[in-house]
Amino acid sequence: NTGEMLGLLLRRKVIGANFLYEVFPGLGLWEKVKPVVEGERKRHGIPRIFECFEYYYNEMKKLQQRGVENG
Known about the structure:
mainly alpha; 4 helices; globular
């Protein structure tokens, strides 16, 4: 999953949040899949499913709320 991979790179500081926000903010993508992810987390009892993707979304949302421009 691209969102999960980008979140992992972001979390490990391999890629910068501002750069990623300019290239691929991905906010709408998480918002679309969030209900499905939450359902899978409950169904399997694994709250960490797609946690890096969620981290990625949260970091991008912070930049959006601060008014950072994206490309």
